[in-house]
Amino acid sequence: MYRLTAAELNETLHVRRDPCVSIYLPVEKVGQDTRQGTIRLRKLVKASHEALRERGLRTPQAEQLLAPVQALLDDALFWEHQEQGLALFASLDGLKIHQLTETCAESVTISNRFMVLPLLAESEQDPVYYLLTLSLDGTRLHLGTRTSLTECELAEPRYVKAVRDTYTLEKQLQHHGSSGGSGTVYHGSESAHDKEKLMVEEFLRQLAANLAGGLTLPEAPLVVACVDYLFPLFRSLCKDCRLQDAHISGSPDTLKKDTLMEKAWQIARPFFEQGKHQAIRSFSHLAGTDKTSSGIGNLLPMALQGRIEALLLRRQPVWGRWDTGSGAVLEILEEQAQFGDPDLLSEAALLVLDHGGSVYLLHDEEMPVPDPCAGLLRF
Questions:
Q1: Within the chain, which residue ranges are assigned CATH 3.30.960.10?
Q2: How far is CA 49 from the centre of its chain?
Q3: Is the pLDDT of residue 357 over 90?
Q4: Which of 80, 143, 172, 225 has the highest CB neighbour number within 10 Å of its CB?
Q5: Sign of CA dihedral 105, 106, 107, 113
Q6: What strands lie across the sheet with 20-26, from one edge to the other?
Q7: pLDDT of 125 strictly over 50
Q8: Burial class for 94, CB neighbours closer than 10 Å (0-12, 13-18, 19+)
Q9: What stretch(es) of the chain map to CATH 3.30.1330.30?
């Protein structure tokens, strides 16, 4: 799977090299037919070559830049393992590839930096979460993303049997007259059912206490998968504020990995979207004051000046031309007049990120104004 990590995405954001070619294309399969992707890409490579030549790049350099992209056309194995979309970032330094889990519009932009805005829609800082698959017969801790799940170290006890064994040892010591132990005391009058309940509670108590040492990423939420009766018990004992209110219902021993990832992401996703929702609420509250603005013509110069704290963007591009010195928008186009024309929303987003601001991509119904962009201002 070809996906940029958070570090690679950040590196790509800060590339300054002329020319940088950004190619986006949907990848459609009709049954087992993978040729649609190669047909689209062949057309885009040809158009990119012509656009580079029009910008003054010599033919040998244009061919050198696009050669790694051209090579993908004959890589049958590459096309058999695609998802919904594909992003290609080519320069004279090489090619970066990122598979998109959602479809995208077909486009080519040529600039002195890569157009990576569509990537932010699905990999904003590559968010991660913890997944605890809680089972009395074996508990595991995982670090997850939307598309991956990796097991982490987890301190003992991970099985309720370990607590039972400790209890049995204490009983044996008590039987032989030992009175100096400091462990949990279980009275002889307790029924087997009561003892088992105490074992489970003690196991969960120790697990919750030891869990903090494994949760080393402070911003990652904690999702639990377990049978229903265990979750309220665990929740009453676990004081970690990152523990999510909802849990994955069912025995984790019987749930497939893909199912765990899908359900865990559904629970963790609202946690990652808190910043976006707060920005929307703040804009609505401050609308009409000097702390907000909208419209690409207003916001692009502000982005250049570092005035934007949070930028809200719709997902569709706004093609046009602008003055990179002043930020003034020179022309807005209904569509790309030619391959390589920039998306003004992407240009604004990159400037905001350069100045330490936040960028949130919204669906049309989430936008607080009819414009394709809105901003919360620092000053």
A1: 6-123
A2: 33
A3: yes
A4: 225
A5: positive
A6: 94-100, 85-91, 20-26, 107-111
A7: no
A8: exposed
A9: 274-377
Res 99 pLDDT > 90: no
**Separation between Cα atoms, residue 347 and residue 110, nearest integer Å:** 12
Two tokens, residue 33:
């037919």
Q: Does domain 274-377 have CATH number 3.30.1330.30?
A: yes
Residue entry with tokens 């996906």 = 3
- Indicate whether 273 pLDDT > 80: yes
Cα Rg for the chain, rounded, in angstroms?
27
CATH architecture of the domain 129-272 equals: 2-Layer Sandwich (3.30)
Position 7, amino acid: A
Bigger pLDDT: 307 or 15? 307
Distance CA 325, CA 305 (A): 11
Contact 303, 351 (CB under 8 A): yes
- What angle do the packed helices 257-272 and 274-286 form, to 10 degrees? 30
Amino acid letter at 279? A
Tokens (6 digits) for 295: 């419209």
Q: To which residue do tokens 């800082």 refer? A: 125
Quote the crossing angle between the two packed helices 192-211 and 160-175, to the nearest 10°: 120
Q: What is the DSSP letter of 240?
A: -
**For the chain, where do the domains classified as CATH 3.30.420 start and end?**
129-272
Count of residues making up the chain: 379
Per-residue pLDDT tens digits for 203-216: 999 999 999 888 99
- As a whole number of angstroms, the distance between CA 4 and CA 30 comes to 27
Give every CB contact of residue 112 below 8 A, 6+ residues apart in sequence.
Answer: 16, 17, 18, 19, 20
Name the fold adopted by 6-123: 3.30.960
Looking up tokens 């099985």 gives 159
